[in-house]
Amino acid sequence: MPWSNQSGGGSGGGGGPWGRGGGGNSGGPWGTGNGGGKTPPDLEDLLRRGQDRLRGVMPGGSFGGGRGIIVIGVAAVAIWLFTGFYTVAPNQVGIETVFGRYVGSKGEGLRYNLPYPIGGVVKPNVGQVNSIQIGYRSGVGAQGRARDVAEESLMLTGDENIVDLDFEVQWRVNPLKASDYVFNLQNPEGTIKAISESAMREVIGRRNIQAILTNEQSSIAQEVKEIVQAALDEYGAGVRIEVVQLVSVTPPPEVRPAFIDVNAAQQDAERLQNEAKTYASREVPQARGRAAQVVQAAEAYRTQATADATGQAARFQQVYESYRTAPAVSRERIFLETMEKVFGSVNKVIIDQSSGNAAGGGAAAGVLPVLPLTEMGARGGQPAGGAAR
């Protein structure tokens, strides 16, 4: 070595580049020259001792020859191979490649693959849920307010209206298809964002704006999720869509007041319809009950009238049979019964014409006094003021 110790005539001192002749000075740049004080370790001595140890280990006692080179090469190869060990976390999948070609996937734990540049390992995170915002950007600016992106949020509906729609897509790497995610997608977020925006515009273009603003938002989100997932599966993206969430669905600011008025009118219409249905549900059963009552009364009257007519016909038939047997008696009986019906409910005056004419006193002399038994019974047995006439 250029700085190895050399013996000098009469010098008696350490050599090396910092060696000084004579005296008891210690070699090295930190020598004090007078032997006093604390001195640092001798670098030359450390290097010399390391060389001696390597000579003792190497076959032949020197670095020269092919054996030393082989040992150094073997040691270098061993160190290189040792660098192939790697660890896969619980939320990761190890994608192994050899010369850039996919050879397999490994789960969590300590794994091994040929080191770089022959082999390689990519460890995508399959447990993390990623989010893509379309139509807006949250937390933008000093105050952290959301910023609207009009070129993404304004969409044309099926009835040729414009709706301002902001939504969010949450996705994660499919653990069963992590290799597809690594090798088939160059820009995962950009691809998913483009497909999601295209699917949303397709779904919105098939619906009217009133349905979009009111009662079909959940079905829209589900349909967009299915379309995006089908497209990504067709591309072999290795991505699983977790949820599509509509953040804001409103008309454009220029026509928002008019839409608010329309919504208020629709709510009033629905309220009136509900009130009409309530009134109908209360009145219709009552009307049906009254109708049933009238029908039952009519049926009862019909039954009664039919029974009366049948009885009268039977009675007439019996009278006719009696008349055929004894016509004179039957006529007399019919006459008497008829007179009873006619005079039974009226006041009667009986005049005996024969007696009146015989007395020569005129018609008044033939009037017979009649005791009003009917009126006396109606008045509780009290006699009338005079005889009825």
UniProtKB/TrEMBL annotation:
UniProt feature, compositional bias: Gly residues: 7-38
InterPro entries: Band7/mec-2_domain, Band_7, Band_7/SPFH_dom_sf, HflK, Membrane_HflK_N
GO CC field: membrane
Membrane disposition: Single-pass membrane protein
Superkingdom of the organism of origin: Bacteria
One Pfam family cited in the UniProt record for this chain: Band_7
Residues spanning the membrane: 68-89
Cellular localization per UniProt: Membrane
One BP term from GO: proteolysis
Record-level Gene Ontology MF annotations: peptidase activity
UniProt-listed SUPFAM superfamilies: Band 7/SPFH domain
Chain segments carrying region Disordered: 1-45
Gene3D superfamilies associated with the record: Band 7 domain
Binding partners and assembly: HflC and HflK may interact to form a multimeric complex.
PANTHER family in UniProt: MODULATOR OF FTSH PROTEASE HFLK, STOMATIN-LIKE PROTEIN 2, MITOCHONDRIAL
Role noted for this protein: HflC and HflK could encode or regulate a protease.
Family statement: Belongs to the band 7/mec-2 family. HflK subfamily.
Protein name, UniProt field: Protein HflK
Taxonomic placement: Bacteria, Pseudomonadati, Pseudomonadota, Alphaproteobacteria, Hyphomicrobiales
